[in-house]
Amino acid sequence: MADMHTTARPRSNAARICTIVGFVFAALAIFISPLIFGVLGVILGVVGAVLGDKPLGWYAAAASVVGAVIGIALAAAILNN
Hints:
The structure is a single chain. The chain has 81 residues and is mainly α. It starts with 12 loop residues before the first helix and ends with a helix. 78% of the residues lie in helices and 0% in strands. The chain has one domain (13-79). The protein is elongated, with a radius of gyration of 16 Å.
């Protein structure tokens, strides 16, 4: 009898690529443009998670949010001095 409880998608190469690019955009959000790269990193992390790279996709999305917040705080600190 087939196991009817497995609904997880198998991880694809596209999911892994989206997740990796999401992490790269999280790092770029700190140094270059927090708003643009932060939002793109969140989108790519969520897409990676939906396509099957579950834990790392969500981690990439969270890392992009954290990177955007750090980037905004860093820019505010530099511009106020």
